[in-house]
Design goal:
single chain; alpha/beta; Rossmann fold; globular; AAA+_ATPase; transport
Length: about 260
């Protein structure tokens, strides 16, 4: 077993589907982006979605949390078709899902402590100030940045911002995490650190995740399974090693 395989391969429950998308269609005017996407993510699994720019990867995960409406299809999350939920029902599902945006989406006018505390207190209104402080420090410890608690976002490096964004996502203890290009704009070493952190979170919190990325080392390290979008549908699926040896020249082009 390689070192990367030792880092990877947390146990997953292949019998329990947490996310199931059926025949998902999404167009913008005459531009059909998703033309019948079908995918399943099982409990405890990290699924990586690859695809060329504009293939609909980010649109797919935005549809999963209802940030974007769909034209046709089903999106079952925790066994419920979220496309049929009203705002109240959708919010009940969303609180169980963490979404890490490309830019970490921190509030620039707030310190790290206040960014995390604001998020926590919005959802856990009965916590004392001491409990809030303890949870903030615990989650910062989990991403290796307790010392950054009083810093402003402008004082953080790109990798630190990603970690704080992830901490803010984790503080609500989500069951699902959707990562949108988690290593974009980072150097090679920091990218690997973020990828390893994604694996640590999967193991510690038993999260189920979808990871959108162009970063093939990230895909190799974090993905239990990989899907590749092409022409609005899932064109290929398998492990990194399986797809790397694909007879499909277009699929292999991602691994060169």
């Amino acid at each position: 077993m390689t070192e990367e395989q030792k880092i990877q391969n947390p146990s997953t429950d292949s019998n329990t589907a947490v996310i199931e998308i059926k025949d998902l269609h999404k167009a913008f005017g005459t531009n059909e982006v998703l033309k019948g996407v079908n995918l399943t993510v099982n409990k405890g699994e990290n699924l990586v979605i690859l695809g060329k720019s504009g293939s609909g990867k980010s649109i797919t995960i935005k549809c999963i949390v209802g940030l974007m409406g769909i034209d046709k299809g089903e999106i079952n999350v925790f066994g419920t078709d979220i496309t049929k939920l009203d705002n109240t029902g959708l919010n009940e599902v969303r609180v169980r899902i963490g979404f890490l945006f490309q830019n970490a989406a921190l509030y620039d006018s707030m310190s790290v402590r206040d960014n995390l505390g604001f998020t926590l207190k919005r959802h856990e209104k009965d916590l004392s100030e001491e409990e809030v402080e303890n949870q903030i420090k615990e989650i910062l410890d989990n991403v290796g940045l307790v010392e950054a608690i009083d810093k402003m976002p402008s004082e953080l490096s790109g990798g630190m911002r990603k970690r704080i964004g992830l901490a803010r996502t984790l503080i609500l203890k989500p069951e699902i995490i959707l990562y949108d290009e988690p290593t974009t704009g980072l150097d090679t070493i920091t990218s690997r650190e973020i990828s390893e952190l994604i694996i640590e979170i999967q193991k510690k919190y038993k999260t189920t995740s979808i990871i959108i990325t162009h970063d093939m080392p990230c895909a190799k390290l974090t993905g239990n399974r990989i899907m590749i979008l092409k022409d609005g549908v899932i064109h290929a699926e398998g492990t990194y090693e399986e797809l790397e040896k694909s007879e499909d020249e277009w699929v292999r082009s991602f691994f060169l």
